[in-house]
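Example record used in the benchmark description.
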Amino acid sequence: MSTTGYAYAIRIIQAPGFIRGLSAFFLPLLPYIAIRLG
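Model output (structure tokens):
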């Protein structure tokens, strides 16, 4: 990954709305993923 792409990814990850959306999307999936992985 290039330096520009890396900085862009960090900027996206640091966005508060992105964090809230990601956790709201993935937290309900964690038990399902854990069950699927056994």
